[in-house]
Write a structure and sequence with these properties.
Two copies of one chain form a homodimer. The longest helix of chain A is centred in the middle third of the chain and has 16 residues. The first copy, chain A, contains six helices and 14 strands. The first copy, chain A, is α+β, with helices and mostly antiparallel strands and 253 residues long. The first copy, chain A, folds into two domains: 162 residues, 60s Ribosomal Protein L30, Chain: A (2-Layer Sandwich), CATH 3.30.1330; 71 residues, CofE-like fold (Alpha-Beta Complex). In chain A, the strands form five sheets. Chain A has a five-stranded mixed beta sheet with strand order 1-14-2-8-9, with helices on both faces. In chain A, strands 4-5-6 form a three-stranded antiparallel beta sheet. In chain A, strands 3-7 form a two-stranded antiparallel sheet. At the A-B interface, strand 1, strand 9, strand 11, strand 13 and helix 6 of A face strand 1, strand 9, strand 11, strand 13 and helix 6 of B.
Chain lengths: 253, 253
């Protein structure tokens, strides 16, 4: 049995806030504490705010390209400019939507640049520079303060082709493998499962979203009772790198 | 708090099996029972088997097109033929992979045709003909026998562009809305959330996968404590229809 525990009562996060302390205090305030094997799922918004990954629109000078595109679709050219700066490559630019590849390799709307979750109007929130490193740092700090080994997943809300609605997925993780692989194992009917690899970090992020909602100010959830796959022994810090499909195996670039 | 309860000990399902009875018996055998507001997540494999949605390879006569494609990539032409028959449209046919749109509108590998979960070698398992109807029937039968109102999600394992690994998503649902919409609501910072629609049925399917695994013979999970969105009053039986992104809004067809 798995339980998903919302962590409530966290304050609005500010740059340089001590996220691990706030997480542990909020958990303690609801009479709980981290246990070995828990997965702490934390929204990227919270991490970005603590890391000061914000841009003030008034300080952005849009390029001519951003200006033209924005004008065409009634967008703020400064917002478009920031999206372009956060992008490594534009995958689609159509009907006022920008689907971009971020420097992490994630493909998502607006390269993850978000106005709706910023603390102030006129401010944009960017994805963490290195969400896997953020996850490792959080995991290390939690272990240092509690002596407990947990996995950490940093989640963001992404759309996807073909299916309506967004889901939360993992953009950073530490202490676990993002993928659970059944390659070469045999199912109960005796079939060799040749190609089953489950993106469990994404499923954990999505499961946590069910207690987070968007309006409840629940930026952290603890998933308890899930025997997550151990990180690869030779690359223990690979984080979400294996979740990024390499271009040569992707039919939809 | 949400709990995800694996339902173990179900027998290998055969055509015309009484799925609701088996589900309730297995749940009772582990000292549990359905409660109002539970979500029963059931794999499509189980539903397909109960509905007899299998094809024997030896009874399939491949077309010339299937034959040529299969030969080129070392596939079984009869398997390819069944994939084509289950497809409404082929989205990509490349490097030995077929990404197809099913008659339900889902876009997935091999139109959901699966050899690995069939009960016997030489047998293919197809998706249910109408998974939303299957979900409604299961929900109705569960209510009839227990007096308890639950939601039902039928899950399948899909890949996705850009991200490695598969996740479980909803291909059928009943008793709930597949989407939770925050359109027009205001977040804690006072921003109007203009376009946040979460595919909660997919997140429920993914969450359930975490207790199912592939090898544990856990084809059912009960998600307890999630206040799922009520079905739309005017279209209570729309099921997963809103999850299918309409072509005109899809940049990746």
């Amino acid at each position: 049995m798995i339980t998903i525990i919302p962590v409530r009562g966290l304050p609005e996060i500010r740059p340089a806030d001590d996220l691990p302390r706030q997480l542990l205090e909020a958990l303690a305030a609801q009479g709980d504490e981290l246990r070995p094997g828990d997965v702490a799922v934390v929204t990227s918004k919270m991490v970005s705010k603590a890391e000061g990954r914000t841009v003030l629109l008034e300080e952005v000078m849009p390029s001519a390209f951003a200006e033209e595109w924005a004008t065409r679709f009634g967008k703020d050219p400064r917002h478009v400019e920031v999206v372009l700066r956060e992008s490594r490559r534009l995958v689609r630019m159509d009907r006022g939507l920008i689907i971009a590849e971020t420097r992490h390799g994630f493909i998502c709307a607006n390269a993850g640049v978000d106005a709706s979750n910023a603390a102030r109007a006129g401010e944009l929130l960017l994805l963490p520079v290195d969400p896997d490193a953020s996850a490792r740092a959080l995991r290390g700090a939690l272990r240092e303060r509690t002596g407990v080994d947990v996995a950490v997943v940093i989640s963001d809300t992404f759309g996807r082709p073909w299916r309506t609605g967004q889901t939360n997925v993992a953009i950073g993780c530490a202490g676990m493998s993002a993928l659970r692989t059944y390659l070469g194992e045999v199912d109960p009917a005796g079939h060799l499962l040749v190609a089953t690899t489950i993106a469990v970090a994404d499923e954990l992020a999505g499961a946590a979203e069910l207690v987070m909602g968007k309006l409840d100010r629940v930026p952290v959830a603890v998933v308890r009772g899930y025997a997550y796959p151990a990180p690869a022994a030779d690359v223990p810090d690979e984080g979400t790198v294996p979740l990024v499909r390499q271009a040569e195996f992707d039919l939809f670039r």
